[in-house]
Amino acid sequence: MSRKKTPSPELPEVSVSDDGEVRHLHLGTPWIQGSMRIDDPFALELEYVQRMMAWLLFMEPSSVARRHAMQLGLGAGAITKFCRKKLRMCCTVVELNPRVEAVCRAWFKLPPDGPMQRVVLADAAAEIKKPEWHGTVDALAVDLYDHEAAAPVLDSAEFYADCRALLTGDGCLTVNLFGRASSYERSVAKLAEAFGADALWAFKPTREGNTVVLAQRTPTRPKRAELLARAEGLQARWDLPATKWLRVFKPIA
C-alpha cells in the first residue's frame, strides 16, 4: 500500500510502499530504491546492500568503531543505519534530494543528525571534491541511481578518482552496478582507470542483476584462509552472510 508521496518540480517524487513485513522506497516509479524490514529497521534487507559491506573483509574488526563511513545517495538509509547502529561508526551521507531525507526520517527510522552522523544535502560530484573530506573516509558506499535506474548517475573515471581521494590508506569503495547491463564493463574500465585493475574485486550479479564492485585505496591480496577467518568473524559478530560471499567474490584482475 502506498503511504506517502512528496512531489517535486525538479526531482522525482518520493513514495513509500509496504509489502508485508518489508517497506520500500520508490523514486517516481515502481523500481525499488531501498528497503527496510519493519520489525528490524537497522538490519540490511537487500542482498546487494549486504554485499556493499564487503569492505569489512579487509579491516580489523576491532578498529571498525573508530572508522568513518560515507554513503553517496541515501536511498532508504540502510547502509548508514547499519554502520551507525550496528558498527558504531561515524557516518556521513551526501544526498541531493531533500525529500528523500525527509521520507527516511519519517518512514525508515533514519536517526537524527548528531556528532556521529550527518546528512549533507548536496550534489555528490561537487561535495566530494572539497579538500575537507580527502583522506578521511574508510568505507565509501556509492549507490547513485535516478528514478529510471538504468545506469549510475555518476560514473566517470574523474568521479571515481575523486572517490579514491576521499579514502584513507586502507579505505575501500563499494559501488552498486548493474552486472547484466552493457554499462557494467564500461564502469569497471573507469574504476580501473582511477584505482588500478589490481585494486578491484567484484561479486557475481544477484538474482536482480546488481553487481557490487569493491575498490581498495591500497591494493592487497589476502590469502583465502585469511579472508575465510575474517568472514566467519563478521558473520558471528554482525550477522552478515560473509562466508557465502567468498563463493561469489573474486579479484577482477
Automatic annotation (TrEMBL):
Membrane is among the record's keywords: no
GO aspect biological process, one term: polyamine biosynthetic process
Domain of life: Bacteria
Keywords: Polyamine biosynthesis
Protein name: Spermidine synthase
Organism of this sequence: Alicycliphilus denitrificans (strain DSM 14773 / CIP 107495 / K601)
